[in-house]
Design goal:
This protein has 809 residues and is an alpha/beta fold. Helix content is 35%, strand content 23%. It is built from 28 helices and 30 strands. The chain has a seven-stranded mixed sheet, sandwiched between helices. The chain has a seven-stranded parallel sheet with strand order 4-5-3-6-7-2-8, with helices on both faces. The C terminus is likely disordered. It binds zinc ion (2 copies). The site of one zinc ion has 7 residues, from helix 24. The site of one zinc ion has 6 residues, from loops.
Length: 809
């Protein structure tokens, strides 16, 4: 008889007590088990499909699966936003396969088709395998549904077959943008018959990437309409706030949300864990915490010794390897090499057979520990483990629940541990459990109307079919003013039949939908000439400057030279014990103030800005400890970025009242700016690297002490706007984070920034608390009756004022 497994609370107790580290456990949250709720399948699904599903062990669906399938059958656009492992795939596969099977019996023509989009090739491959299992499960009827992947790996000879005969095509937005839509004539019969478009993991389409995908989907809808197809969109999302709104923005269609999750959940204990301070000193002599990576390796070691099947999610591939290597060393010492071999790193890019072998080893228990990057890019099914370690906050509560949801086999308990990194957001979260456990997950933020995003898609659309007035509504309100601009720039030509693309190059090549504009910089191995990959122009100066250590697919390279003229970074393999971080200076100009609210005498604004940024040097930072090893100067030209920003100003009288001295102001504003950048990801689905900031005691455009936070992408991505909308909560959390930090004068957990362009100088922790209190304590916000013209006063005085520089993303 198997012994009853220990409860997750018992496992956590052992983990904390084993080495006397109870004080690192800042909170544990007990989430009770939840029973399953079932409903019958809706009418109208094919018996062959239900038989195949039943053969796979599922007799009746959970309530949310039945609800979504029913809506799909009724021809409604649906988004299913439920937890990890809640069977979202089945909810759309049942109606899709039924419709496709129906189609195979059509007397003439192609029957029905379906397009499945996933953000990664690995996920599409998984889905294809799952469909293959369903087809094999039944007596052969489902074999008539022809499913095929169509992506960069599809052999050329096979592509024609897919276009002509496949009824279910699995691909990704990149391939749709570059491969399928520009060649739509060859896809005419497929598009005409297109009944369903499935968009899996749709919460990943956020920010600039999400905005691009939204426009790719509008191009798809336009071409379908041209051929007479009118597909129903079925979307699957991680749990998110307002999924119907986000899915509506993504597709441009009214979408019904299914959110009431009927799947069961075992008892879960969620622990918050803060690594201890070390003797080491960082910038400005600040105390440095033990790294989350080192701490994760320790916890993984102890869990494996305890025979607990664990996956540790680590941000970078390099970090995942480090965690595995350290755990293996500790296990060799503690229990010998046999046990050490039961831990592995997952680096991505494995062949499907290797991934299946890894899954089997995990599920059988032969492998007890896995260190891996985020679940999405894995392409391995790691559901059903006993414990999950999250090395650093994944950036969103939605991501947190998605990773934590990998733990918990049917009906059994699960342990999840969030290990804080040394930064303001992680530190805030492990000391404010309510902001994780008593808050709804965030909405997926995207802004398809951003003209920088829209313009290349209008060109691509015009090259697919001339653009006419009837297309204006589809592409949104920015379209009408953009078209004449594109004509003036020689991108489009106006003729009686509409706007045409007449240039020689392919319009779809104008934009990399995963980049943020500008021609990408190629990364080339200097000695072999091998192309390793690209980085977008916007981040090239920061990521691949001469001397930078650049990680690419788990390997590290040193940049020998960044050649801006040729847009190429020449690199060589290198594995030094340090990482690099670029230093830069930034100034900002207000172009237009769109919205302003008064907070007492203080003012909060949102609008357009121009940011000028120059990378001037880089630091070497020792791996694991974060120690600074030295600084090297760089000679790179400045870059400008037109984007959107949120900013706040206080008056000199307010500063006097708060007793903030003029000499304290620069450090106070700079500290408040850093911490607020660190906390914005709590309110907008962004990364702290997606945004930048500038603070100054006297800004020429406002005539006042001002702190700006801006989107790091041309035209903006919706993050600063979100900050404006949620400003009181956002800046309140910022104040809480600084106040709660146990350090004396500021540290990476509160006001220091890993990407500060000015070496984290000057910073004034006490001053920043007073500054934020005076900003937040003045009542409001009330929408200003009218937005006064931006104050241009005191410009003469301001000419002498230095702006505190801050890097862009
Ligand atoms: Zn601190
Ligand atoms: Zn700074």
């Amino acid at each position: 008889m198997k012994p009853r497994p220990d409860s997750p609370a018992t496992v956590l107790k052992r983990l904390a007590e084993a080495r006397g580290r109870q004080d690192r456990l800042t909170h544990s949250e007990h989430l009770p088990a939840r029973a399953a709720r079932f409903a019958p399948w809706p009418a109208g699904l094919r018996p062959e499909v239900l038989a195949a599903v039943a053969a796979g062990g599922i007799d009746r669906p959970w309530t949310h699966q039945a609800e979504a399938a029913n809506l799909a059958n009724l021809g409604k656009h649906v988004v299913i936003a439920t937890g990890t492992a809640s069977g979202k795939s089945l909810a759309y596969l049942a109606p899709v396969l039924s419709a496709l099977l129906e189609g195979t019996e059509a007397a003439n023509g192609r029957g029905a088709t379906c397009l499945y989009l996933s953000p990664t090739k690995a996920l599409a491959a998984d889905q294809l395998r799952r469909i293959g299992e369903l087809r094999a499960a039944e007596d052969g009827a489902l074999q008539r549904v022809r499913a095929a992947a169509y992506d960069g790996d599809t052999p050329f000879q096979q592509r024609e077959w897919v276009r002509q005969y496949a009824s279910l095509v699995l691909t990704n937005p990149d391939m749709l943008h570059r491969g399928i839509l520009p060649a739509h004539a060859r896809w005419a019969s497929f598009l005409r018959a297109l009944r369903f478009v499935v968009i899996d993991e749709c919460h990943t389409y956020r920010g600039v990437f999400g905005s691009h995908v939204a426009q790719v989907l509008r191009r798809l809808r336009r071409l379908c309409a041209r051929y007479g197809g009118e597909p129903v969109f079925l979307l699957a999302s991680a749990t998110s706030a307002d999924p119907a709104v986000s899915a509506g923005r993504l597709t441009g269609l009214p979408v019904t949300a299914v959110t009431d999750d009927g799947s069961p959940r075992g008892e879960t204990v969620f622990a918050l864990w803060e690594p201890p301070l070390t003797e080491l000193q960082g910038e400005q002599g600040a105390p440095v915490r033990r790294s989350a990576t080192a701490e994760a390796a320790d916890l993984l070691t102890d869990l494996v010794l305890d025979r607990i099947r664990t996956v540790a999610f680590v941000r970078s591939r390099r970090g995942a390897e480090l965690v595995a290597v350290i755990a293996q060393e500790r296990l060799t010492e503690a229990a010998g090499p046999e046990t050490a071999r039961r831990v592995a790193a997952y680096r991505g890019g494995y062949l499907p057979e290797e991934r299946r072998a890894l899954e089997r080893a995990l599920h059988s228990g032969r492998l007890l520990g896995l260190a891996a990057t985020s679940a999405l890019e894995l392409g391995v099914d790691v559901a059903g483990l006993d414990a999950v370690l999250l090395t650093g906050y994944p950036g969103t509560r939605a991501g947190l629940w998605q990773q934590a949801g990998r733990a918990g086999r049917a009906g059994q308990g699960a342990l999840a541990v969030l290990i804080a990194r040394d930064d303001p957001l992680d530190t805030y979260l492990v000391h404010h459990p309510d902001s994780l456990f008593r808050q709804p997950v965030e909405a997926t933020v995207l802004d398809p109307d951003n003209p920088h995003v829209l313009a290349p898609h209008l060109c691509a659309a015009a090259s697919e079919l001339p653009l006419t007035d009837s297309d204006l509504e589809l592409f949104g309100p920015s379209t009408a003013p953009l078209l004449p601009q594109l004509e003036r720039r020689g991108m489009l030509r106006r003729r009686p039949g509409g706007y045409f693309w007449t240039r020689r190059e392919r319009a779809a090549d104008l934009v990399d939908i995963r980049g943020s504009g500008g021609a990408p910089v190629r990364i080339v191995e200097a000695d072999t000439g091998r192309l390793l990959g690209t980085v977008d122009a916007g981040s090239a100066h920061t990521a691949v400057h001469t001397g930078a250590i650049h990680l690419h697919q788990g390997s590290s390279y040193r940049v020998r030279e960044l050649d801006l003229e040729e847009s190429v970074a020449l690199v060589e393999a290198a594995d030094p014990p340090y990482s690099t971080v670029a230093r830069d200076t930034t100034s900002i100009t207000v172009l237009a103030t769109d919205r302003a609210v008064a907070w007492g005498d203080a003012r909060l604004c949102f609008g357009s800005v121009e940011v000028t940024n120059q990378v001037v040097s880089f630091l070497k930072r020792r791996l694991l400890t974060g120690e600074i090893l030295g600084e090297t100067k760089l000679d790179l030209p400045p870059r400008t970025l037109r984007t959107r920003a949120v900013w706040w100003c206080v008056t000199d009288d307010q500063l006097d009242d708060a007793g903030l001295l003029p000499e304290e102001l620069p450090g106070a504003a700079h500290a408040a700016e850093h911490a607020s950048i660190g906390l914005l990801p709590l309110f907008a689905t962004c990364d702290r690297w997606d945004i930048g900031g500038v603070s100054t005691p006297l800004h020429p455009d406002t005539g006042l002490p001002t702190v700006f936070v801006y989107d790091g992408h041309p035209g903006g991505a919706g993050f600063a706007e979100r900050g404006f909308q949620r400003a009181r909560e956002w800046l309140g959390a910022t104040l809480d984070a600084i106040t709660a930090c146990e350090c004396e004068r500021g540290c990476p957990s509160c006001i220091q920034s890993p990407k500060c362009g000015n070496g984290n100088e000057p910073l004034d922790k006490a001053g920043s608390i007073r500054l934020l209190r005076l900003l937040l304590g003045t009542g409001g916000p009330e929408e200003a009756a009218s937005v006064p013209a931006v104050a241009k006063a005191a410009v003469a005085k301001a000419a002498g004022s230095a702006q505190s520089p801050e890097p862009s993303a």
